[in-house]
Amino acid sequence: MIFLTKGEAIMTNSQAVAAHYSIKGILDTIESGLKQVGADRDSVTIDQLSLVDEFHIGGRKATEHFFPQLGFRPGDRVLDIGCGIGGGSRFAAAKYEVNVDGIDLTDEYIEVGDELNRWVGMETSVSLKTGDATSLEFEDKTFDAAFTMHVCMNIADKRRVFEEAYRVIKPRGVLGIYDVTKYGAGEIMYPLPWAASAETSHLSSAGQYVKDLESAGFQVETVTDRHAFAVEFFEAVKAKMASAGGPPPLGIHVLMGSDAKTKVTNLTSNLINGLVAPFEFVARKL
Prior knowledge:
The chain is of the alpha/beta class. The chain has helices spanning about 15-20, 25-35, 45-55, 60-65, 85-95, 105-120, 160-170, 205-215, 225-245, 260-270; strands spanning about 1-5, 10, 75-80, 100-105, 125-130, 145-150, 170-180, 220-225, 275-285. The protein is built from ten helices and nine strands. Helix 6 (about 105-120) links the parallel strand 4 and strand 5. Helix 3 packs antiparallel against helix 5 (about 85-95), helix 7 crosses helix 8 and helix 9 packs across helix 10.
């Protein structure tokens, strides 16, 4: 997809997506937030970082529901497709004793993620690099499993993503997906955490995910509707922020820029109105 920006400069969809997520000063903001919660870069844990680095609906609570379904085994090599600043990668490596390669379009995310890996001493178990989910720079049958969380909403050709995942996963390996899907009829409000407008938002229904996964060669084993969980999560966030008088020092708002409040408000409204919903998919390569 190609479109014109306000400055009339031509950008590809990938460039526009990377630009959307590029936020300057992330590390400084995280360091400042850590000080406010009584920690610093020398003592921080992955649990403390989870407040900011698990950039998906439900954060760590969602990850803990999702990962046990993927059958990670100690020593597995796992691919995190669209790793952000590496929160999911670090949790998988620490919890399941796996080695994780993470790729993401956004250079700033990889730079921040690498530094956070150093802070928590995970440079050897987690490797992050800039990469494109539709054209993975890995050999065939490299990984025992792969996962992606809140990434494919930015990608129109999801089948291509799944085909690439299928190629790099070993036979009998699993691909896990935790994504926001199109849920009901109606006009979706923007901006949202993953897109400023509909031009870079490519929502599909859960049924279309299943069709695309099967077309790529996967056998879909489970499909889980997490709409109720998402509504409950954001209602709790809203209540907590109201009682505290504003956002906490560390939170996913750090990765959303100056219009974070608008993005979260719109997402919450879209969820409550039944327009979007997160789903989990577990698919196996035969």
